Protein backbone atom coordinates (compact mmCIF):
# COMPACT_ATOMS: atom_id res chain seq x y z
CA UNK A 1 0.00 0.00 0.00
CA UNK A 2 1.43 3.34 -1.01
CA UNK A 3 -0.53 6.56 -0.49
CA UNK A 4 1.93 8.87 -2.26
CA UNK A 5 0.38 10.66 -5.25
CA UNK A 6 0.84 9.86 -8.92
CA UNK A 7 2.22 12.85 -10.82
CA UNK A 8 0.93 13.87 -14.27
CA UNK A 9 2.55 16.48 -16.48
CA UNK A 10 1.54 18.09 -19.75
CA UNK A 11 2.22 21.23 -21.71
CA UNK A 12 -1.35 22.37 -20.98
CA UNK A 13 -4.85 21.07 -20.37
CA UNK A 14 -4.45 18.12 -22.77
CA UNK A 15 -3.05 15.94 -20.02
CA UNK A 16 -6.42 16.22 -18.33
CA UNK A 17 -7.71 13.65 -20.79
CA UNK A 18 -5.32 11.25 -19.11
CA UNK A 19 -6.31 12.45 -15.64
CA UNK A 20 -9.98 11.94 -16.52
CA UNK A 21 -9.28 8.35 -17.37
CA UNK A 22 -7.19 7.97 -14.19
CA UNK A 23 -10.10 9.26 -12.09
CA UNK A 24 -12.30 6.65 -13.72
CA UNK A 25 -9.90 3.69 -13.55
CA UNK A 26 -8.02 4.53 -10.35
CA UNK A 27 -10.45 6.48 -8.14
CA UNK A 28 -8.55 5.66 -4.95
CA UNK A 29 -5.23 7.07 -6.09
CA UNK A 30 -4.04 10.50 -5.03
CA UNK A 31 -3.25 12.66 -8.04
CA UNK A 32 -1.20 15.76 -8.79
CA UNK A 33 -1.31 17.41 -12.19
CA UNK A 34 0.90 20.15 -13.58
CA UNK A 35 0.28 21.87 -16.91
CA UNK A 36 2.88 24.21 -18.35
CA UNK A 37 0.41 26.55 -20.04
CA UNK A 38 2.68 29.55 -19.75
CA UNK A 39 5.00 28.01 -22.34
CA UNK A 40 2.48 26.21 -24.50
CA UNK A 41 2.58 24.85 -27.15
CA UNK A 42 5.47 22.39 -26.86
CA UNK A 43 4.87 20.94 -30.34
CA UNK A 44 6.90 23.42 -32.42
CA UNK A 45 9.75 23.72 -29.93
CA UNK A 46 13.20 22.22 -30.23
CA UNK A 47 13.32 18.81 -28.48
CA UNK A 48 16.18 20.03 -26.26
CA UNK A 49 14.02 22.83 -24.96
CA UNK A 50 11.07 20.48 -24.46
CA UNK A 51 13.38 18.24 -22.44
CA UNK A 52 14.52 21.14 -20.27
CA UNK A 53 10.93 22.31 -19.65
CA UNK A 54 9.86 18.77 -18.89
CA UNK A 55 12.60 18.43 -16.29
CA UNK A 56 11.45 21.66 -14.66
CA UNK A 57 7.95 20.23 -14.34
CA UNK A 58 9.29 16.95 -13.04
CA UNK A 59 11.45 18.65 -10.44
CA UNK A 60 8.39 20.50 -9.19
CA UNK A 61 6.42 17.27 -8.84
CA UNK A 62 9.31 15.51 -7.13
CA UNK A 63 8.97 18.01 -4.30
CA UNK A 64 5.46 16.58 -3.82
CA UNK A 65 6.82 13.06 -3.23
CA UNK A 66 5.17 11.43 -6.24
CA UNK A 67 5.51 7.65 -6.48
CA UNK A 68 5.10 7.44 -10.25
CA UNK A 69 5.36 9.92 -13.10
CA UNK A 70 2.99 9.95 -16.05
CA UNK A 71 4.20 12.04 -18.95
CA UNK A 72 0.73 12.88 -20.26
CA UNK A 73 2.13 14.69 -23.26
CA UNK A 74 3.23 13.09 -26.49
CA UNK A 75 5.73 15.80 -27.38
CA UNK A 76 7.43 15.52 -23.98
CA UNK A 77 7.34 11.73 -24.16
CA UNK A 78 9.05 11.77 -27.55
CA UNK A 79 11.67 14.27 -26.37
CA UNK A 80 12.37 13.26 -22.79
CA UNK A 81 11.15 9.80 -21.80
CA UNK A 82 14.44 7.87 -22.04
CA UNK A 83 16.23 10.65 -20.18
CA UNK A 84 13.60 10.74 -17.42
CA UNK A 85 13.65 6.98 -17.05
CA UNK A 86 17.40 6.87 -16.84
CA UNK A 87 17.56 9.48 -14.12
CA UNK A 88 14.53 8.98 -11.95
CA UNK A 89 14.17 6.38 -9.27
CA UNK A 90 10.39 6.09 -9.71
CA UNK A 91 8.55 4.40 -12.59
CA UNK A 92 7.98 6.77 -15.53
CA UNK A 93 5.22 6.13 -18.05
CA UNK A 94 4.88 7.86 -21.40
CA UNK A 95 1.94 7.89 -23.78
CA UNK A 96 3.54 6.66 -26.99
CA UNK A 97 4.04 2.97 -26.28
CA UNK A 98 0.50 2.40 -24.90
CA UNK A 99 -0.98 4.33 -27.86
CA UNK A 100 1.07 2.33 -30.36
CA UNK A 101 0.15 -0.95 -28.76
CA UNK A 102 -3.57 -0.10 -28.85
CA UNK A 103 -3.38 0.89 -32.53
CA UNK A 104 -1.80 -2.42 -33.45
CA UNK A 105 -4.47 -4.21 -31.43
CA UNK A 106 -7.36 -2.37 -33.08
CA UNK A 107 -6.37 -2.21 -36.73
CA UNK A 108 -7.79 -4.82 -39.07
CA UNK A 109 -6.21 -3.69 -42.34
CA UNK A 110 -2.81 -2.62 -40.95
CA UNK A 111 -3.24 1.01 -42.06
CA UNK A 112 -2.72 3.28 -39.11
CA UNK A 113 -2.78 7.04 -39.08
CA UNK A 114 -1.15 9.15 -36.38
CA UNK A 115 -1.92 12.78 -35.75
CA UNK A 116 0.26 14.74 -33.37
CA UNK A 117 2.17 17.95 -32.85
CA UNK A 118 5.05 18.85 -35.14
CA UNK A 119 7.49 17.70 -32.47
CA UNK A 120 5.89 14.30 -32.09
CA UNK A 121 5.53 13.76 -35.83
CA UNK A 122 9.07 14.92 -36.54
CA UNK A 123 10.47 12.60 -33.89
CA UNK A 124 8.91 9.67 -35.74
CA UNK A 125 8.32 8.13 -32.32
CA UNK A 126 4.96 6.52 -33.15
CA UNK A 127 6.04 5.07 -36.47
CA UNK A 128 9.22 3.73 -34.85
CA UNK A 129 7.41 2.19 -31.91
CA UNK A 130 4.66 0.66 -34.07
CA UNK A 131 7.18 -0.78 -36.51
CA UNK A 132 9.34 -2.18 -33.73
CA UNK A 133 6.34 -4.12 -32.51
CA UNK A 134 4.86 -5.04 -35.88
CA UNK A 135 6.97 -4.36 -38.95
CA UNK A 136 4.22 -4.86 -41.54
CA UNK A 137 2.03 -1.96 -40.35
CA UNK A 138 1.64 1.02 -42.68
CA UNK A 139 1.88 4.17 -40.63
CA UNK A 140 1.01 7.64 -41.92
CA UNK A 141 1.80 10.52 -39.59
CA UNK A 142 0.36 13.98 -39.91
CA UNK A 143 1.06 17.09 -37.86
CA UNK A 144 -2.01 18.95 -36.64
CA UNK A 145 -0.45 22.07 -35.13
CA UNK A 146 -3.69 24.02 -35.02
CA UNK A 147 -5.51 21.61 -32.72
CA UNK A 148 -3.76 22.48 -29.44
CA UNK A 149 -4.53 26.21 -29.64
CA UNK A 150 -8.19 25.37 -30.37
CA UNK A 151 -8.44 23.32 -27.22
CA UNK A 152 -6.51 25.73 -25.04
CA UNK A 153 -8.80 28.58 -26.07
CA UNK A 154 -11.87 26.45 -25.28
CA UNK A 155 -13.00 26.52 -28.91
CA UNK A 156 -13.73 22.83 -29.13
CA UNK A 157 -17.26 23.20 -30.45
CA UNK A 158 -16.96 26.31 -32.59
CA UNK A 159 -17.47 26.59 -36.35
CA UNK A 160 -13.79 27.51 -36.65
CA UNK A 161 -12.86 24.27 -34.94
CA UNK A 162 -15.00 22.28 -37.37
CA UNK A 163 -13.35 23.89 -40.34
CA UNK A 164 -9.81 23.54 -38.98
CA UNK A 165 -10.30 19.85 -38.15
CA UNK A 166 -11.78 19.09 -41.57
CA UNK A 167 -9.00 20.94 -43.42
CA UNK A 168 -6.21 19.43 -41.34
CA UNK A 169 -7.37 15.85 -41.75
CA UNK A 170 -7.98 16.13 -45.49
CA UNK A 171 -4.66 14.47 -46.46
CA UNK A 172 -5.71 11.32 -44.58
CA UNK A 173 -9.00 10.87 -46.39
CA UNK A 174 -8.06 8.66 -49.35
CA UNK A 175 -5.60 6.39 -47.52
CA UNK A 176 -8.03 3.71 -46.39
CA UNK A 177 -7.01 4.02 -42.73
CA UNK A 178 -9.07 2.05 -40.26
CA UNK A 179 -7.32 3.32 -37.13
CA UNK A 180 -6.21 6.80 -36.14
CA UNK A 181 -4.04 7.49 -33.11
CA UNK A 182 -4.79 10.74 -31.34
CA UNK A 183 -1.10 11.27 -30.67
CA UNK A 184 -1.54 14.36 -28.53
CA UNK A 185 -3.40 14.36 -25.25
CA UNK A 186 -5.24 17.54 -26.28
CA UNK A 187 -6.94 15.83 -29.21
CA UNK A 188 -9.51 13.70 -27.35
CA UNK A 189 -11.21 17.01 -26.50
CA UNK A 190 -11.84 17.33 -30.25
CA UNK A 191 -12.86 13.72 -30.59
CA UNK A 192 -16.44 14.25 -31.88
CA UNK A 193 -15.20 16.53 -34.66
CA UNK A 194 -12.35 14.21 -35.58
CA UNK A 195 -14.66 11.19 -35.66
CA UNK A 196 -17.11 13.07 -37.86
CA UNK A 197 -14.44 13.91 -40.41
CA UNK A 198 -12.80 10.47 -40.41
CA UNK A 199 -16.12 8.63 -40.57
CA UNK A 200 -17.55 5.87 -38.38
CA UNK A 201 -15.34 3.10 -39.77
CA UNK A 202 -12.15 4.61 -38.38
CA UNK A 203 -11.30 3.66 -34.78
CA UNK A 204 -9.81 6.52 -32.80
CA UNK A 205 -7.13 5.62 -30.29
CA UNK A 206 -6.87 7.83 -27.24
CA UNK A 207 -3.22 7.38 -26.27
CA UNK A 208 -3.89 8.90 -22.84
CA UNK A 209 -6.67 6.50 -21.92
CA UNK A 210 -4.50 3.59 -23.01
CA UNK A 211 -1.73 4.93 -20.82
CA UNK A 212 -3.85 4.76 -17.68
CA UNK A 213 -4.42 1.04 -18.21
CA UNK A 214 -0.65 0.70 -18.23
CA UNK A 215 -0.35 2.86 -15.10
CA UNK A 216 -2.82 0.57 -13.36
CA UNK A 217 -0.85 -2.53 -14.34
CA UNK A 218 2.44 -1.00 -13.24
CA UNK A 219 1.07 0.10 -9.85
CA UNK A 220 0.34 -3.56 -9.19
CA UNK A 221 3.56 -4.73 -10.77
CA UNK A 222 5.64 -2.50 -8.49
CA UNK A 223 3.27 -3.08 -5.59
CA UNK A 224 2.71 0.63 -5.03
CA UNK A 225 -1.05 0.88 -5.59
CA UNK A 226 -3.11 2.68 -2.95
CA UNK A 227 -5.46 -0.15 -2.16
CA UNK A 228 -6.78 1.28 1.12
CA UNK A 229 -10.19 3.01 1.09
CA UNK A 230 -9.55 6.64 0.19
CA UNK A 231 -12.80 8.61 0.58
CA UNK A 232 -11.18 12.02 0.10
CA UNK A 233 -8.50 11.45 -2.48
CA UNK A 234 -6.05 14.26 -3.18
CA UNK A 235 -6.69 16.04 -6.50
CA UNK A 236 -4.20 18.86 -6.83
CA UNK A 237 -3.97 20.85 -10.04
CA UNK A 238 -1.20 23.28 -10.86
CA UNK A 239 -0.67 25.41 -13.90
CA UNK A 240 2.10 27.76 -14.89
CA UNK A 241 -0.43 29.84 -16.83
CA UNK A 242 -3.78 31.48 -16.23
CA UNK A 243 -5.55 29.50 -13.51
CA UNK A 244 -9.03 30.89 -14.38
CA UNK A 245 -8.94 29.59 -17.93
CA UNK A 246 -7.55 26.32 -16.71
CA UNK A 247 -10.35 25.97 -14.16
CA UNK A 248 -13.07 26.51 -16.79
CA UNK A 249 -11.75 23.85 -19.14
CA UNK A 250 -10.74 21.41 -16.40
CA UNK A 251 -14.00 21.67 -14.46
CA UNK A 252 -16.05 21.09 -17.58
CA UNK A 253 -13.92 18.25 -18.86
CA UNK A 254 -13.57 16.41 -15.56
CA UNK A 255 -17.04 17.20 -14.25
CA UNK A 256 -15.50 18.39 -11.00
CA UNK A 257 -15.01 21.78 -9.45
CA UNK A 258 -11.35 22.50 -10.11
CA UNK A 259 -9.45 25.39 -8.57
CA UNK A 260 -5.91 25.19 -9.86
CA UNK A 261 -2.93 26.83 -8.20
CA UNK A 262 -0.66 28.92 -10.33
CA UNK A 263 3.01 28.13 -9.93
CA UNK A 264 6.25 29.38 -11.40
CA UNK A 265 8.62 26.61 -12.29
CA UNK A 266 11.24 28.36 -14.37
CA UNK A 267 13.37 28.92 -11.30
CA UNK A 268 13.42 25.20 -10.60
CA UNK A 269 16.75 23.60 -11.48
CA UNK A 270 16.91 23.26 -15.23
CA UNK A 271 19.64 20.68 -15.27
CA UNK A 272 18.77 17.02 -15.31
CA UNK A 273 18.82 16.46 -11.62
CA UNK A 274 16.62 13.79 -10.12
CA UNK A 275 16.21 15.38 -6.73
CA UNK A 276 14.33 12.58 -5.11
CA UNK A 277 15.95 9.81 -3.22
CA UNK A 278 14.26 6.62 -4.34
CA UNK A 279 11.68 5.09 -2.04
CA UNK A 280 12.25 1.63 -3.45
CA UNK A 281 15.38 -0.19 -4.50
CA UNK A 282 15.26 -3.36 -6.53
CA UNK A 283 17.88 -5.88 -5.50
CA UNK A 284 18.87 -8.08 -8.42
CA UNK A 285 18.99 -11.25 -6.41
CA UNK A 286 16.99 -14.37 -5.83
CA UNK A 287 18.94 -15.30 -2.70
CA UNK A 288 16.55 -14.61 0.21
CA UNK A 289 19.39 -14.52 2.76
CA UNK A 290 21.14 -11.74 0.89
CA UNK A 291 17.97 -9.80 0.20
CA UNK A 292 17.01 -9.92 3.89
CA UNK A 293 20.35 -8.42 4.92
CA UNK A 294 20.21 -5.69 2.31
CA UNK A 295 16.57 -4.90 3.16
CA UNK A 296 17.42 -4.56 6.85
CA UNK A 297 20.09 -1.98 6.11
CA UNK A 298 17.87 0.06 3.78
CA UNK A 299 14.88 -0.13 6.13
CA UNK A 300 16.83 2.10 8.52
CA UNK A 301 16.94 4.73 5.77
CA UNK A 302 13.22 4.43 5.07
CA UNK A 303 13.86 2.75 1.72
CA UNK A 304 11.88 -0.32 0.75
CA UNK A 305 13.74 -3.18 -0.86
CA UNK A 306 12.30 -5.45 -3.52
CA UNK A 307 13.96 -8.46 -5.04
CA UNK A 308 13.57 -10.31 -8.30
CA UNK A 309 11.14 -12.61 -6.49
CA UNK A 310 8.67 -9.69 -6.32
CA UNK A 311 8.45 -9.44 -10.11
CA UNK A 312 7.09 -11.80 -12.70
CA UNK A 313 9.87 -14.11 -13.88
CA UNK A 314 12.58 -12.32 -15.87
CA UNK A 315 15.26 -13.95 -17.96
CA UNK A 316 18.24 -14.92 -15.78
CA UNK A 317 21.40 -12.91 -16.29
CA UNK A 318 24.34 -15.30 -16.64
CA UNK A 319 27.10 -14.68 -14.09
CA UNK A 320 29.85 -15.25 -16.61
CA UNK A 321 32.37 -12.75 -15.22
CA UNK A 322 35.74 -13.63 -13.70
CA UNK A 323 35.52 -11.17 -10.83
CA UNK A 324 32.87 -10.21 -8.29
CA UNK A 325 32.68 -6.77 -9.87
CA UNK A 326 32.15 -8.15 -13.37
CA UNK A 327 29.31 -10.36 -12.16
CA UNK A 328 27.70 -7.67 -10.04
CA UNK A 329 27.79 -5.33 -13.03
CA UNK A 330 26.26 -7.96 -15.30
CA UNK A 331 23.39 -8.47 -12.86
CA UNK A 332 22.81 -4.80 -12.05
CA UNK A 333 23.00 -3.58 -15.65
CA UNK A 334 21.02 -6.50 -17.02
CA UNK A 335 18.10 -6.18 -14.63
CA UNK A 336 18.12 -2.36 -14.64
CA UNK A 337 17.61 -2.53 -18.39
CA UNK A 338 14.82 -5.07 -18.14
CA UNK A 339 13.00 -3.33 -15.29
CA UNK A 340 13.84 0.23 -16.35
CA UNK A 341 14.54 1.01 -12.71
CA UNK A 342 17.65 1.58 -10.63
CA UNK A 343 18.88 -1.80 -9.51
CA UNK A 344 21.36 -2.92 -6.86
CA UNK A 345 23.26 -6.18 -7.37
CA UNK A 346 25.52 -8.01 -4.97
CA UNK A 347 28.07 -10.50 -6.12
CA UNK A 348 29.76 -12.10 -3.22
CA UNK A 349 31.65 -15.14 -2.20
CA UNK A 350 34.16 -16.85 -0.05
CA UNK A 351 37.88 -16.80 -0.89
CA UNK A 352 40.02 -19.35 0.93
CA UNK A 353 43.77 -18.74 0.77
CA UNK A 354 44.70 -22.42 1.02
CA UNK A 355 42.46 -23.11 -2.01
CA UNK A 356 44.06 -20.34 -4.11
CA UNK A 357 41.06 -18.09 -3.56
CA UNK A 358 38.40 -20.73 -4.33
CA UNK A 359 35.45 -20.95 -4.33
CA UNK A 360 35.52 -17.19 -5.19
CA UNK A 361 33.06 -16.24 -7.91
CA UNK A 362 31.93 -19.86 -7.98
CA UNK A 363 30.78 -19.80 -4.34
CA UNK A 364 27.10 -20.23 -5.17
CA UNK A 365 27.74 -23.13 -7.57
CA UNK A 366 30.85 -24.64 -5.92
CA UNK A 367 29.38 -28.14 -5.66
CA UNK A 368 28.49 -28.14 -9.34
CA UNK A 369 25.21 -29.49 -10.71
CA UNK A 370 22.35 -29.44 -8.23
CA UNK A 371 24.37 -27.19 -5.89
CA UNK A 372 22.88 -25.85 -2.69
CA UNK A 373 24.27 -24.52 0.58
CA UNK A 374 24.68 -27.98 2.13
CA UNK A 375 26.44 -29.41 -0.92
CA UNK A 376 28.71 -26.36 -1.23
CA UNK A 377 29.67 -26.60 2.45
CA UNK A 378 30.35 -30.32 2.16
CA UNK A 379 32.71 -29.73 -0.75
CA UNK A 380 34.49 -26.92 1.07
CA UNK A 381 35.12 -29.08 4.11
CA UNK A 382 36.26 -31.98 1.95
CA UNK A 383 38.68 -29.74 0.04
CA UNK A 384 40.12 -28.46 3.33
CA UNK A 385 40.34 -31.86 5.02
CA UNK A 386 44.14 -31.93 4.86
CA UNK A 387 44.62 -28.26 5.73
CA UNK A 388 45.49 -27.57 9.41
CA UNK A 389 43.26 -25.12 11.27
CA UNK A 390 45.94 -22.38 11.48
CA UNK A 391 46.13 -22.30 7.67
CA UNK A 392 42.43 -21.93 6.99
CA UNK A 393 42.29 -18.18 6.57
CA UNK A 394 39.31 -17.08 4.53
CA UNK A 395 37.72 -13.87 3.36
CA UNK A 396 34.13 -13.09 2.47
CA UNK A 397 33.86 -10.44 -0.24
CA UNK A 398 30.80 -8.50 -1.34
CA UNK A 399 30.81 -6.21 -4.36
CA UNK A 400 27.75 -4.05 -4.77
CA UNK A 401 26.86 -2.35 -8.02
CA UNK A 402 24.09 0.19 -8.29
CA UNK A 403 22.96 0.73 -11.88
CA UNK A 404 20.56 2.93 -13.73
CA UNK A 405 18.80 1.83 -16.88
CA UNK A 406 20.86 4.24 -19.02
CA UNK A 407 23.90 2.04 -19.28
CA UNK A 408 26.88 0.79 -17.35
CA UNK A 409 29.14 3.83 -17.66
CA UNK A 410 27.85 5.44 -14.48
CA UNK A 411 27.46 2.43 -12.24
CA UNK A 412 28.35 2.95 -8.61
CA UNK A 413 30.67 0.19 -7.39
CA UNK A 414 31.61 -0.46 -3.75
CA UNK A 415 33.22 -3.38 -1.97
CA UNK A 416 33.34 -4.81 1.54
CA UNK A 417 35.02 -7.77 3.14
CA UNK A 418 35.51 -9.64 6.39
CA UNK A 419 38.39 -11.93 7.36
CA UNK A 420 38.03 -15.16 9.31
CA UNK A 421 38.75 -18.86 9.26
CA UNK A 422 36.94 -21.97 8.06
CA UNK A 423 36.19 -24.36 10.90
CA UNK A 424 35.58 -28.09 10.51
CA UNK A 425 32.50 -28.20 12.73
CA UNK A 426 29.56 -25.94 11.84
CA UNK A 427 28.06 -23.73 14.51
CA UNK A 428 24.87 -21.63 14.54
CA UNK A 429 21.58 -21.64 12.60
CA UNK A 430 21.38 -18.04 11.43
CA UNK A 431 22.53 -16.48 8.17
CA UNK A 432 22.91 -18.55 5.03
CA UNK A 433 25.47 -20.17 2.74
CA UNK A 434 28.87 -20.74 4.33
CA UNK A 435 28.04 -18.83 7.52
CA UNK A 436 28.09 -21.83 9.93
CA UNK A 437 31.69 -22.56 8.89
CA UNK A 438 32.99 -18.99 8.86
CA UNK A 439 34.59 -18.27 12.22
CA UNK A 440 35.44 -14.71 13.23
CA UNK A 441 38.34 -14.86 15.74
CA UNK A 442 37.80 -11.36 17.14
CA UNK A 443 34.35 -12.33 18.47
CA UNK A 444 34.89 -16.06 18.91
CA UNK A 445 31.79 -17.05 16.91
CA UNK A 446 30.79 -18.15 13.43
CA UNK A 447 28.66 -15.76 11.38
CA UNK A 448 25.73 -18.18 11.77
CA UNK A 449 25.86 -17.64 15.54
CA UNK A 450 25.19 -13.93 15.17
CA UNK A 451 21.83 -12.18 14.88
CA UNK A 452 21.13 -10.48 11.56
CA UNK A 453 22.01 -7.14 13.12
CA UNK A 454 25.25 -8.39 14.61
CA UNK A 455 26.28 -9.96 11.32
CA UNK A 456 25.52 -6.78 9.38
CA UNK A 457 27.73 -4.78 11.73
CA UNK A 458 30.87 -6.68 10.75
CA UNK A 459 30.11 -8.62 7.57
CA UNK A 460 31.42 -8.11 4.06
CA UNK A 461 27.92 -7.12 2.91
CA UNK A 462 27.40 -4.82 5.87
CA UNK A 463 30.72 -3.09 5.12
CA UNK A 464 29.87 -2.76 1.43
CA UNK A 465 26.42 -1.38 2.28
CA UNK A 466 27.98 1.22 4.59
CA UNK A 467 30.26 2.31 1.76
CA UNK A 468 27.22 2.48 -0.49
CA UNK A 469 25.19 4.39 2.07
CA UNK A 470 27.68 7.23 2.18
CA UNK A 471 27.71 7.62 -1.61
CA UNK A 472 24.48 6.52 -3.22
CA UNK A 473 22.37 9.60 -2.63
CA UNK A 474 24.94 11.85 -4.24
CA UNK A 475 25.21 9.35 -7.06
CA UNK A 476 21.46 9.53 -7.62
CA UNK A 477 21.53 13.28 -7.79
CA UNK A 478 24.49 13.44 -10.12
CA UNK A 479 23.84 14.82 -13.54
CA UNK A 480 23.70 11.79 -15.78
CA UNK A 481 24.54 13.72 -18.92
O1 LIG B 1 23.21 -14.07 -7.71
P1 LIG B 1 22.13 -13.89 -6.67
O2 LIG B 1 20.75 -14.16 -7.18
O3 LIG B 1 22.26 -12.59 -5.95
O4 LIG B 1 22.34 -14.99 -5.49
P2 LIG B 1 23.55 -16.01 -5.34
O5 LIG B 1 23.36 -16.81 -4.10
O6 LIG B 1 23.77 -16.75 -6.63
O7 LIG B 1 24.75 -15.01 -5.07
P3 LIG B 1 26.18 -14.89 -5.74
O8 LIG B 1 26.12 -15.25 -7.17
O9 LIG B 1 26.72 -13.56 -5.34
O10 LIG B 1 26.97 -16.00 -4.96
C1 LIG B 1 27.26 -15.75 -3.61
C2 LIG B 1 27.46 -17.03 -2.85
O11 LIG B 1 28.48 -16.80 -1.89
C3 LIG B 1 28.09 -17.26 -0.61
N1 LIG B 1 27.89 -16.10 0.28
C4 LIG B 1 27.89 -14.80 -0.08
N2 LIG B 1 27.64 -14.02 0.99
C5 LIG B 1 27.48 -14.85 2.01
C6 LIG B 1 27.19 -14.66 3.37
O12 LIG B 1 26.96 -13.46 3.87
N3 LIG B 1 27.12 -15.73 4.16
C7 LIG B 1 27.29 -16.95 3.67
N4 LIG B 1 27.55 -17.24 2.40
C8 LIG B 1 27.65 -16.19 1.57
C9 LIG B 1 26.81 -18.03 -0.81
O13 LIG B 1 27.11 -19.36 -1.11
C10 LIG B 1 26.21 -17.37 -2.05
O14 LIG B 1 25.33 -18.22 -2.72
MG1 LIG C 1 24.39 -15.85 -8.34
UniProtKB/TrEMBL annotation:
Keyword set includes Hydrolase: yes
InterPro entries, per database record: Asp/Glu/hydantoin_racemase, Asp/Glu_race, Asp/Glu_racemase_AS_1, Asp/Glu_racemase_AS_2, dITP/XTP_pyrophosphatase, Glu_race, ITPase-like_fam, RdgB/HAM1
Keywords on record: Cell shape, Cell wall biogenesis/degradation, Hydrolase, Isomerase, Magnesium, Metal-binding, Nucleotide metabolism, Nucleotide-binding, Peptidoglycan synthesis
Reactions it catalyzes: ITP + H2O = IMP + diphosphate + H(+); L-glutamate = D-glutamate; XTP + H2O = XMP + diphosphate + H(+); dITP + H2O = dIMP + diphosphate + H(+)
Cofactors: Mg(2+)
Entry binding sites for substrate: 10-11, 42-43, 74-75, 185-186, 285-290, 348, 432-435, 455, 460-461
Pathway: Cell wall biogenesis; peptidoglycan biosynthesis
Co-factor remark: Binds 1 Mg(2+) ion per subunit.
EC number: 3.6.1.66, 5.1.1.3
Positions contributing to Mg(2+) binding: 347
Family per record: Belongs to the HAM1 NTPase family.
Function: Provides the (R)-glutamate required for cell wall biosynthesis. Pyrophosphatase that catalyzes the hydrolysis of nucleoside triphosphates to their monophosphate derivatives, with a high preference for the non-canonical purine nucleotides XTP (xanthosine triphosphate), dITP (deoxyinosine triphosphate) and ITP. Seems to function as a house-cleaning enzyme that removes non-canonical purine nucleotides from the nucleotide pool, thus preventing their incorporation into DNA/RNA and avoiding chromosomal lesions.
Protein name per UniProt: Multifunctional fusion protein
Organism: Lacticaseibacillus mingshuiensis
